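Open question from group meeting: does this chain pack into something compact, or does most of it stay loose? Before anyone orders reagents, we agreed to write out a predicted structure and look at it together. Recording both the input and the output here so the notebook holds the full record.
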Amino acid sequence: MEYVTLNNGVNCPVVGIGTYMLTPADAENSVREALKMGYSLVDTANAYVNERACGRGIVDLLYIHQPAGNWLAGYRQLEKAYKEGKAKAIGISNFEGKYIEELQTKWEIVPQFIQVEAHPYFTQKELRQVLDKYDIKLMSWYPLGHGDKSLINEPLFAELGRKYGKSSAQVILRWHTQMGLVVIPGSKNVDHIKDNLDILDFTLTKEEMAEIAKLDKNQRFYHRTDEQLVQFAGWRPSFEQK
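Structure tokens returned:
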């Protein structure tokens, strides 16, 4: 495994498993199989309704999911958990633009991570300039463009896949890690979970990374609205009953 070192000295694996959109049964199976393979980074959320299945007892990295409602009060709770040693690291998710600008003026503890959409079509150039000032690491969700066929089928990734004996998806995930990003691709397919971890035995050249950089379109696949933030603040997801 390869790791990134956070701004508090904690090491974090560069590849983890995501559980977004997985049922509790699928999440439990995927996490169990992933841990057997050597994964040690698991991403879940209260809103995914599968936290219990992923293992409620583990609190290593604690995030605030959206800048919704009184999010600053939520961040203060993360800081409290960090000070009390209940979380090894804290982070923010989807805090881009004005939200991270405001948080910079109010945090007592700089977050170790921010989790946002990132992939070769949307490399978060502006945000990364802010993160570099504070040594905040970026964790990519939708690292494969949410399965978008146009991204996966880019001829460049197919060409590099043939060169290295990897799939296009594996090439994209390796691009992420060489960019210094952490990835959490999700899957209920055990073979895909295995393949997603099998990306650390090859290295893209500087020239190849430069070619991939040309694919950046500043194109998102997810567009959050202010109305959705209001809904997030009032959302009370159900929990699995077992």
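Observations to bring back to the group:
The CA atoms of residues 170 and 195 lie 7 Å apart.
The mean pLDDT is 93.
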